[in-house]
Amino acid sequence: MVAVVAATRWWRMLLVLSAAGMGASGAPQPPNILLLLMDDMGWGDLGVYGEPSRETPNLDRMAAEGTLFPNFYSANPLCSPSRAALLTGRLPIRNGFYTTNAHARNAYTPQEIVGGIPDSEQLLPELLKEAGYVTKIVGKWHLGHRPQFHPLKHGFDEWFGSPNCHFGPYDNKARPNIPVYRDWEMVGRYYEEFPINLKTGEANLTQIYLQEALDFIKRQARRRPFFLYWAVDATHAPVYASKPFLGTSRRGRYGDAVREMDDSIGKMLQLLQDLRIADSTFVFFTSDNGAALISAPEQGGSNGPFLCGKQTTFEGGMREPALAWWPGHIAAGQVSHQLGSITDLFTTSLALAGLTPPSDRAIDGLNLLPALLQGRLMDRPVFYYRGDTLMAATLGQHKAHFWTWTNSWENFRQGMDFCPGQNVSGVTTHTLEDHTKLPLIFHLGRDPGERFPLSFASTEYQEALSRIAQVVQQHQEALVPGQPQLNVCNWAVMVSGWCVGGCPVPGCSHPPGAPDEPWPAQGGGGEAGAVPGLHPGPGPWCLSVQDSGCWSQATWDQCHTAPGLLQVPGRLPS
Ligand SMILES: *[C@@H]1O[C@H](CO)[C@@H](O)[C@H](O)[C@H]1NC(C)=O
Ligand SMILES: *[C@@H]1O[C@H](CO)[C@@H](O)[C@H](O)[C@H]1NC(C)=O
Ligand SMILES: [Ca+2]
């Protein structure tokens, strides 16, 4: 942490010396912070990362003018926990964005779940406000949709976007389409006021999100420093793009979405230049988890040379494209081999604002400024969790898997494949395999695809294991897990439970034909659509839940005025 303190001081000096750091009053002002978070975009999706179509000229230019991180990681292979980690600087196991329903299960926040970001967590925008920042989120929040979880209650001054994924259309009373908000007010719903044409792939949402960003930047340019979190979702299935981009990519519809992202980011960076605030705005680009190969190639991206994708703790699930841009401060055309984490965006942003992270809790994020400004490399582990389970850890070039799993044979046979075309014997397993006694270790430099485990007898294995084991032991001994927020079958966190066989939901009938196991092998994490075997509670078969549930027409008014539930103006689902 010594380096962190030093970097903060160094930055303060730089502020004093640099005209760009002067606010209107002439007082030093910390830089604006613009975080560009993609959804399910993979490491292999950018031209500068080797994507052969080379359709991301703006991002490639951003890399050429800034720093590229080849070894940058999400904190989870799924949207909600990854976003919670970004905004808290803490692993999901600490901030509560995980489930204990079963061992090593992914979980997120579909609209039926009522868990969310606990008040006890301190979010980046809350802290930045203390340093005078004006804060805005554009796009997907995904940290809970009850009033206590609203982004404006967690430090954001403004919001345009949605609490959930743009799945749908649901178009039914029991399960309405996902709402879209402007600040406190619901201004419409996906597929209704904000159309997404699943057939053609046309939606104007990225253009709307771009305009929100440009307006905010223009408004804030000469005022207090801003923090803009641009969390757009066009590259998450169902992928979409606006008319001018549809059909323009060699890669198909997913590529169209990427091209629109790239174009939008180009426009934002150009605006920063035009307003002459580029040198006082720190910009960071990354993605929340690896490409969803389950939706590829039509609706999902590429993880380049890495194994598997979203949902898994192989490299393809968690290694992300990452670019930092801050003209005049970050030298152009750099590559940093620093092991980075999405939690670092929390700590780095605080350092930029001249703030130190909260000292009353464990923070996983590092301040990346020494890596960015001085080319330093800091020793740090990367932990790969799936739900409550530490699946793997990377230190230096070595990665140790303590558990391996993709998904169950049952789900796999039903067509859910997280590693299409890839089968590394004994590694991409369809049963949860315990390697805690003798971890599988890979050298990610020689073998980025995790195909050739080191021989257990080799000196390299022994040395790597002893180094990693030591770090993991320290981590686990000090770990204080947060209260799990994403449990299903838990009345404390669910609106009305989920109708899974064996789930103790009073009055909720078992859906005809549903499997009997209490919790399906890959339940709760199947963002790509319906999860076989998992039946969301307020579905049409749960008559008693529909009657008393919060999504039904009959109880809409009641639900939306009842304490503890979203109070939204806006119309009833038709
Ligand atoms: C997108 O906006 C254009 C121009 O306003 C409009 O013609 C088109 O119908 C919109 N498309 C969708 C899917 O909303
Ligand atoms: C992967 O290969 C192993 C060994 O050949 C085989 O036992 C296993 O069934 C294969 N898995 C899949 C999903 O094809
Ligand atoms: Ca995602």
From TrEMBL:
Manner of cofactor binding, per the entry note: Binds 1 Ca(2+) ion per subunit.
Active site per the UniProt annotation: C79, H142
Modified positions (3-oxoalanine (Cys)) in chain numbering: C79
Region forming the signal peptide: 1-26
Listed GO MF terms: arylsulfatase activity; metal ion binding; N-acetylgalactosamine-6-sulfatase activity
Sites where a glycan is attached: N204, N423
Family indicated by similarity: Belongs to the sulfatase family.
Protein name in the entry: N-acetylgalactosamine-6-sulfatase
Species this chain originates from: Callithrix jacchus (White-tufted-ear marmoset)
Gene expressing this chain: GALNS
